[in-house]
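Hey, I'm writing a tutorial for new members on how sequence and structure tokens pair up, and I'd like a real worked example in the thread rather than a made-up one. If someone can provide the structure for the chain below, I'll link this post from the tutorial.
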Amino acid sequence: MFRRSIACAAAVAALAAVAPTGSAEAASIPRLVSTVVSHDCENLGVTISLTPSQKRRAQALLPAGFRLADAATLLVETSTCAGATVNGQVIHSFKLSEAALSVVPPRRVESRQLPDLVTENVFMLSQLDTNRLLSETKSRAGYRTEIAEISLDRGSNSAVPRIMTASAGGSLAPSSARARTTPLLLPAGVEVPNPGVVYQLWTKDAAGRFVVTTNSNMRIGAPAVGAGTVTAEPGTLLHRLLGGRSASGVAFSGRASGFINDTYVFRR
């Protein structure tokens, strides 16, 4: 995830993802359970501002202890990376697709990778993967995940507007996205450091414990922004949430030298 990071890169040639500070209370001290270090990633995401009726349906999807952010949004994002290590084990190219709701963080935690300047907190409705080890690692931590067919096409930079598409199958939250974006807002090969934006990806495990992944993107390049539409088939989770077949919002896309995801489990 690097939506705000891309926005920073596009606006001020910098990007980041950060998390809140740790608590001294025993119940709020998290235990690190996994680390994923990826490299050479690209993405396409669409952020949709929720209407009052959508907010009511979204809140009903959240487990106890979570509440929607005041300016609630749905994020649908697809990424592809050239490879990664999962707790030290090497995996090769993979894709992932995520659907998430912006929330108020139920606990405080700090990224080990970046300074704490901006925090994006989201509750993960689904995490779809093409790599089994990655999916199993997320599932053991408590995230809703499955193996699915996933595609990402960032289009041609010579086209104006640039058309980008993504799709994800499976049964948890299948969807497709189409975006009309600007050409790349930085020259090819130019990257900027993340100034301190960290995503916190939240869920609850089967034991009712809070689980969070601090998602830290290191260097960002090839940013583009625009307008995008997410489409979901009738009867699916996102269709029920949106109350219709499609919804539109702000699209963002870019490249990252890589991300580091540290996953923690809190005591009750």
